Automatic annotation (TrEMBL):
It is a multi-pass membrane protein. Its main location: membrane. The chain crosses the membrane at residues 34-53, 62-82, 88-109, 165-182, 194-222, 228-246. Keywords: Cell membrane, Membrane, Transmembrane, Transmembrane helix, Transport. Pfam families: AzlC (PF03591). This is Branched-chain amino acid ABC transporter permease. Belongs to the AzlC family. Signal peptide: none annotated. The keyword Membrane applies. One of its GO terms (biological process) is L-valine transmembrane transport. InterPro entries: Brnchd-chn_aa_trnsp_permease (IPR011606). GO terms for cellular component: plasma membrane.
Length: 266
């Protein structure tokens, strides 16, 4: 087969695989659940687009940054540095530090996706954002054990990813093309923060999870003065360390309570 024929066969195989994923019922479940949160996130995306234009970027530069970076917090951290003419290594280091939380996410998701080729894991990482990660791990606390379960989990994740990407890019592009016609600050970026906060609160379903959230929040505020938003990563580390220390004690107490007759409990 000629190189052109092999390329055509490869593309046909990929299109068929993605079509099967899109036809899976959980694909649309993931898309709908993500869409329900996207109102706040798209306001954040809109303000990110506006910020890029207001910083002096051309429309072409802003569009490329939105498509290639696809990380609102990293973009907002890098934009003032770009506008100030900071060295490239400073811009990259800042964006890396702001997005260090995705290293934690990746470690958690490693067991879910190790069956995929490296290339697929790389572009899956590009599409997976904070909220899609949260929704996915809430629905699937453990990795799949069978091929059928893997397909279901992948369909749900891709549904959320596609929905998130389309909403984000659409509003980001609107912000880019309308940015010069809008006031510098409308306060819409706070809507994205509220949306993320709502998702985080929905995960606090146990006392230990609620405690870890409170510890992380307190640590993030206490360490707010750290550069490059390292307070976020530090807060995660503090919460994980403390909860790893107390989790065995909590589980042991619960086991003892469940093993005792109701009348013997204090």
């Amino acid at each position: 087969m000629s190189p052109r024929g092999r390329l055509g066969a490869w593309l046909a195989h990929k299109v068929d695989a993605y079509a099967r994923t899109a036809r899976h019922p959980l694909f649309w479940v993931g898309a709908r659940e993500m869409a329900g949160i996207s109102v706040g996130l798209t306001a954040w995306a809109f303000m990110t687009g506006v910020a890029m234009i207001k910083s002096g970027m051309s429309i072409t530069e802003a569009v490329l940054m939105s498509l290639l970076v696809f990380a609102g917090s990293a973009q907002l951290a890098a934009i003032p540095l770009i506008a100030a003419g900071a060295p490239l290594w400073v811009i990259l280091a800042t964006a890396f530090c702001v997005n260090l939380r995705f290293v934690v996410f990746s470690l958690h998701l490693r067991d879910y996706f190790m069956f995929l080729p490296r290339t697929q894991r790389l572009y899956l990482g590009y599409f997976t954002g904070d909220v899609t990660y949260v929704l996915y791990t809430r629905r699937f606390p453990k990795p799949a054990e069978t091929e059928t379960q893997r397909r279901a989990q992948m369909a749900y994740l891709w549904g959320g990813n596609v929905s998130n990407w389309v909403f984000w890019q659409t509003l980001s592009m609107l912000g880019i093309f309308l940015g010069n016609a809008l006031p510098a600050r409308w306060g819409l970026e706070f809507a994205g923060t509220l949306a993320l906060l709502a998702v985080a609160c929905s995960l606090a379903t146990t006392q230990l999870r609620a405690l870890s959230a409170l510890i992380a929040a307190a640590a993030a505020v206490a360490l707010y003065g750290l550069p490059y938003r390292l307070n976020i990563v530090s807060a995660i580390a503090v919460a994980v360390a403390i909860c790893l220390f107390i989790e065995p004690k909590v589980l042991a107490r619960q086991s003892r309570a469940e093993g005792e007759p109701p009348g013997d409990r204090p």
